[in-house]
Amino acid sequence: MIEATGLTKSYGKTLAVNNLSFSVAAGQVTGFLGPNGAGKSTTMRMILGLDNPTGGQVTIGGKKYHDLKEPLRTVGALLDAKWVHPNRSARAHLQWMAKSNRIPNSRVDEVLATVGLSNVANKRAGGFSLGMSQRLGIAAALLGDPEVLLFDEPVNGLDPEGILWIRKFMHRLAEEGRTVFVSSHLLSEMALTASNLVVIGRGQLISQSSTEDFVSRAAENTVKVRSPQLAELRDVLQRASAGVTGDEKALVVSGMDSDKIGEIAAEHRIVLHELSPQVGSLEQAFMQITGDSVEYHTGLDAEAQHVLESAQ
Amino acid sequence: MNLLAVERIKLFTTRSPWWCALITIALSVGFAAILAGATESTDSLTVSATQFGGSQFGIAVVMVLAALAVTTEYRFNTIRTTFQAVPHRSPALVAKAVVVGLVSLILGEIAGFGAWGLAVLMRPNDNLALTTGQDWANVAGLGLVFAFSAVLAVAVGIMIRHSAGAIALLLIYTLAVESLVQLIPKIGNHIHEWMPFNVANKFLVGSTPAGNGPPPSDSPLSPGWALAYFAGISIVFLLVALGVAKKRDA
After folding, report:
1. The complex's ipTM?
2. Phi, psi of A106, rounded to the nearest 5 degrees
């Protein structure tokens, strides 16, 4: 649905997006991952025709955003919840947006009800909490009942109930056949929400694949095994060419899945107390793969190392 | 047409346009009251004197209203929401200029007739009847001058994008620059003859000196052409602003 080819954007001397090509398909939630300064927001603005690309192009359903008639009916976007005039009421904000795309006024009340802001519809938007502003932005994105939805960090400021709500909501939208493109920093949340990932760093594409593939490619999958006959098990596994590390309490086996380990143990009549596959986390995968392309480093390199090591 | 409704909703659902409108009318009518009260009973108040507040100060406030209508959109980034909803930027911005212009027109009529009406009430014996065409231009024409000034201010707002900067520029220009240009030796007066607000004044007061009101304009154009000149300048500014807004990132 969304097709970017060779997208490039430079602001003066800074190259924010560099020859980025990716595609986002309908019917699933695609995550847009990248460290700070990677160019995610810039890319989203270019999709919406707010910033002009210096090179390349991006189309939605084959058309450029500029060529869409009544674009809010095709693409709904929440880029920044703060893009609201503080003295205007929530209802008035949605009303002018609806009017601009000939969306009936009744739809305004519908979306306000969907996000749970009906009670404060006539209050000025400046008085809203962060969570309420976020929900207003989501309401605005839903106004035209669009088939493509773009969210730039939608869970910012939502409480756990809100985060769960938005995750379920995005899944439901995807199930309805819509295209959902979400950018986020919350890796754990992204792992639960997105089925596909577009990962960028320093303005360039790092990978585009399903979430599972991304995680399994980057992080090593190991199996943790505990047994009263640990030393014997270690020998047996090493003879079967698995990589084995660990101490007297447990073994960490790599290069062999848990089924095989269980069968080998059974062959040699070794009792198992624990056989648990350790799936690499998205956080690990992310740190590993994007480690080189973080634009604005904090002094947390040591912490990053710790995260990588702690899972092993 | 739709876009006009959109801009109308935007304009009327925030507080500053209402306040600016109130201040404009208060300044125009208030000045008329002051002048009517302060003129000696032996002197006679003229029609153009009643319009003094409106044409000199009310106009500045209307331009602030118009500039804010654009610059607050840039400040709160609702301009990005606007361009997201309406990717064709020129029609959206033109709609804004039209709505703001129309509102300023109405404000100008209220201010002009309000000031004149109050003066008539306070000094019924002075010859304040609207007899000549120039008299009518003076009172009813204020709305037109307000309208085109507002369009000019919208254009400046689009180009500068910054509230304080746009307002400072517009206020300093309307209140000081044109008069100060006359101090430039040799060419000052020539330049002044063609400066937009001076020409707009020609449309309003003509060339006969007015009693206690603003000094007559030294523009060589006839009042009709003066209005056309002023309108033309504001439209040229708007076109330039549209070109800039189209090319720029939102």
Report:
1. 0.89
2. -60, -30
